[in-house]
């Protein structure tokens, strides 16, 4: 049984898992739901704009944001 289960292997999830796993008395599980990062656009800074749709995006929209002039963002 794990002491900590971290859902999401993004930058924050990985850092948290790494820091917690430094304690030898703790058991840590890191879960990632996404596919392998084999798409070439993941590793290219300008590739971000190619990643706003397709199989690597969850397809959720934010509520319109007042700070961004009512626009909706995809995540």
In terms of structural class, how would the helical and strand content be classed? Answer: little secondary structure
Q: What's the count of strands?
A: 2
In the residues, how many domains can be counted? 2
How far apart the termini lie comes to: 32 Å
Largest sheet: 2 strands, parallel
Q: What is the strand content?
A: 5-15%
Q: Looking across the biggest beta sheet, what order are the strands in? A: 1-2
- In the predicted model, the low-confidence regions spanning at least 5 consecutive residues are none
What is the structure about, briefly put?
By secondary structure, the protein is largely without helices or strands. The chain is 13% helix and 11% strand. The longest helix is centred in the first third of the chain and has 10 residues.
Key phrases:
75 residues; little secondary structure; 2 domains; two-stranded parallel sheet; 1 helix; 2 strands; 11% strand
Model description:
The chain has a two-stranded parallel ribbon. The protein has 1 helix and 2 strands, in the order E-H-E. It folds into 2 domains: 1-33, no CATH class; 39-75, no CATH class. The model has no long low-confidence stretch (mean pLDDT 86). It has one helix at residues 11-20; strands at residues 4-7, 28-31.
Break the fold down into its secondary structure elements and pairings:
Blueprint: E1 4-7, H1 11-20, E2 28-31
Parallel strand pairs: 1-2
């Amino acid at each position: 049984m794990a002491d900590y289960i971290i859902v999401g292997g993004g930058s924050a999830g990985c850092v948290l898992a790494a820091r917690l796993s430094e304690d030898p008395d703790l058991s840590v599980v890191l879960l990632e739901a996404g596919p392998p990062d084999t798409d070439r656009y993941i590793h290219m800074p300008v590739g971000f704009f190619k990643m706003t749709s397709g199989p690597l995006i969850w397809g959720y929209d934010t509520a319109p944001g007042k700070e961004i002039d009512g626009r909706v963002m995809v995540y």
